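Worked example 2:
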Amino acid sequence: MIIKDRIVAAFGARAILREMVARKFRAKYSRALLGIWWAVATPLILAFSIDIIFTHVFKVDIHNFTLFVLSGIIPWLFFSNTVMDVTNSFTADSALLKQGIFLREFTPISCVLANFLSFLIGVVFLLPIFLVSKPQVIKVLPFLLLIFILHLGFITGLGMLLSTLNAFHDDLVHFFSVGLMLWFWITPVFYTLEMLNFPYRWICLFNPLTYYAILYRQVLYEGAAPSCNIVCISFLISVVFFIGGYRFFIRKEAELFKKL
């Protein structure tokens, strides 16, 4: 199976991938005044802003609403930041790609992993807030590793798909800058599925990010083990997107190289 061979080759060249991830991570914050602290500040600012609007204006009755939103906004920011970076990754690194010194899939994968590293740092610094509010969170923290893997698989596959498509259609990155705003509102970050009536709930159920948001919320906000059904759905989504995105990239690779 060609994907299996490519994964084996990628594992053998993992030192190059680590260097690419480190380079992209440093570049991401090299000129930022707060540096890596933006990984902590951004979700906090957004969570407090949403909390003020929905608890004081719309009177949403959810206990500890700030933490409720924060548990969903952290994975959402990882997704949205990664999509914006990875979509344009082949175009941005076209000069390096032409040199042929690394596997071409390392370009989107390194972009995803650099954002994942920022995401992990943000989670580590914000985790004490959840632990203080609900100490039993510490008992279910090992489940976060599983959720990280599932979430990362989905975003990596989607990233390879989008970065490949954008190499042929340069306006895709602009489309997604607008599309992400719509995607945010149909992801249960500041509301639960139970708050929605049909058919609106079906819109969220067809959104892959809904299931990852629920998993993070169950662990971080509720301090409970993730639902087996949601884990299974998330696993299927991750596998489908990862294999589908990787296969699409492989099928278009030769044409992509000529395009760049």
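Residues 215 and 227 are 7 Å apart (CA to CA). The two ends are 27 Å apart (CA to CA).
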